[in-house]
Design brief:
About 65% of the residues lie in helices and about 0% in strands. By secondary structure, the chain is mostly helical.
């Protein structure tokens, strides 16, 4: 998607292109459409979008409902393009107008000044969108329509549908900014934003965050699925093959680096799902592969230390996954790990029971 067609670019709005206000009446809109310097077909299209009562809702929600006439266009004309919050300083705007303007800033900003600024921008955008009240939004739109002598919106579904489209546009704006960051910074910024929004996975995030995570999940799916298979193959090899301890340690070190790298990319998804009481299927699949290898090392090869190390890796990397933690707690190997973590030096007087029983 090019920036010029980005759904968060407010310059695409008929209100902006016609320099119109949501309070303008039909005759004023026709007059503006005839005077603006655009191709005739484009003028007719813009006029139609604002005169059609159903389609008009989309643009009303994507603008500044019940705001001061021409304020939004004036703000866009002042846009400096250098900071993610440059349109909002000192402005008293409705939550939807703030979210629309904040998302629009993604059009021009090539790189956030610092990662902290990017994190703050994402958190503020999600907070603004979560503060939108459908009844208040509907009332504001109908106030504008009354001034412009347009029939009021009576179907709340029209407003709800338009808000969903804005949330998708906000997610697109966030992904556009993230895509301009180096890979490691991208992951770090989104992870930090999700941590702040969900209070480190304790509280569910708003629907806009869900849409951001959905987009991120799709865009990272190839990496995550490819690396998941590589981890599974290496874990299965380590669990099923008896190899010298020195060689095993080299391969286990490689496995640990692969798992941690994969987990860093999956962290935003894991945190968002944890906040809603769900597990990430790919993360569960990877943890189970590592657990299977640890059990084989313990039961078939008697490699207690190596089995313990794998279980510690699972406990450290996948602590956000309740289902993994619950299964691990049932393992004899995990009991041994827990004793190890607590510093237990109790001498075992009999051989350990098989893990996974």
């Amino acid at each position: 998607m090019t920036e010029s067609s980005a759904p968060y670019d407010l310059r695409m709005s008929p209100f902006f292109e016609l320099r119109a206000s949501p309070r303008d009446d039909r005759s004023r809109l026709v007059q503006l459409s005839e005077s603006v310097e655009l191709p005739a077909t484009r003028r007719a299209q813009l006029r139609s979008e604002l005169l059609n009562l159903r389609r008009r809702v989309t643009w009303e929600v994507a603008w500044d409902p019940n705001g001061a006439p021409q304020e939004m266009s004036a703000l866009l004309a002042e846009r400096s393009g250098d900071r993610l919050d440059s349109l909002l300083e000192g402005r008293k705007l409705s939550p939807m107008a703030r979210a629309n303007l904040r998302a629009h800033c993604a059009v021009d900003v090539l790189f956030p000044e610092t990662p902290d600024v990017a994190v703050g921008w994402i958190v503020a955008l999600v907070d603004d969108s979560a503060s939108v009240s459908i009844p208040e939004l509907m009332s504001a739109i109908n106030a504008d329509r009354e001034t412009g002598h347009f029939a009021p919106v009576t179907a709340v579904e029209w407003i709800e549908t338009a808000v969903i489209e804005r949330e998708k546009a906000f997610a697109s704006a966030v992904c556009a900014v993230l895509d301009r960051l180096p890979p490691d910074a991208l992951v770090a910024v989104l992870t930090a934003a999700v941590e702040r929004i969900t209070h480190e996975g304790e509280n569910p995030g708003p629907s806009t965050l869900e849409r951001i995570i959905e987009r991120y999940s799709i865009e990272t799916e190839f990496f995550r699925s490819t690396e998941l298979e590589r981890v599974r193959e290496l874990a299965a090899y380590l669990g099923s093959t008896r190899i010298p301890v020195e060689q095993y340690r080299v391969l286990q070190g490689r496995l640990s680096r692969m798992v941690r790298r994969w987990d860093s990319v999956a962290q935003p998804i894991q945190l968002a799902r944890q906040a809603t009481g769900r597990d990430d299927p790919m993360s569960v699949g990877m943890a189970e592969s590592l657990r299977d290898a640890a059990i084989q090392l313990h039961n078939q090869h008697g490699m207690l230390n190596e089995s313990r190390d794998l279980m510690l890796l699972i406990a450290d990397v996948f602590r956000e996954l309740p289902i993994v933690a619950n299964r691990a707690s049932e393992d004899g190997t995990t009991i041994e790990v827990n004793r190890y973590i607590r510093g237990s030096n109790t001498t075992r007087r009999r051989p350990p029971a098989s893990a996974g029983e």
